[in-house]
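Changelog-adjacent note: as of this version, every example in the card shows the full chain rather than a window. The one below runs 203 residues end to end.
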Amino acid sequence: FGIDNFLPNPRNDANEVYAATVDNTKIVYSGTVSPVVPIAEKVSPSIVAISLKTRTRDFFGRIYEGQGTGSGIIIDKQGHIVTNNHVVENADDIIVVFNDGREAKATLVGRDPQTDLAVIKVEPTSLTVAELGDSSTLKVGELAVAIGSPMGTEYAGSVTAGIISGLNRTVSIGDDSIKLIQTDAAINPGNSGGALVNSEGKV
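Full-length structure tokens:
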């Protein structure tokens, strides 16, 4: 894993409580617990782990099976999940693992290598949809919380936190360049396709 910066735990006191309510998509905090707790509680049901299988054939016709993992975000009640293109581009089988442990086979709807985005779909059953935010309103120093499945599906729902470290960072990829959000929240292999959310739990 990368190095996570852990916030101190609240005092173990019988009167030490917190409350978080969602009113018109806004999280309201009270108490002294880390503000990341209600954010994670709101967003985690919308984040899935993705387990992948690939099959390749060698020169002699022998078939070899590989495995991979990633993360995804439920974006509607119809079962559409957004992830990164590089997570699913060579996959033969895509299995989605939901926050509650349920599993479902997914199909590829479409992908765009240039933006590294892809959409997969599962049969809709009691899905919790993530709320999308507006990245154009971000400011440096804002809270940033990453939720995903670093290092495999057994670590699904892992939460790391940091801040927005920079905006409009230009990175060159071949002949193209893209602008990115920079954060110091720990992100590891397997987090790809997962969510980076703000203090209101918006992606």
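Structural remarks: DSSP finds two helices and twelve strands in the chain.
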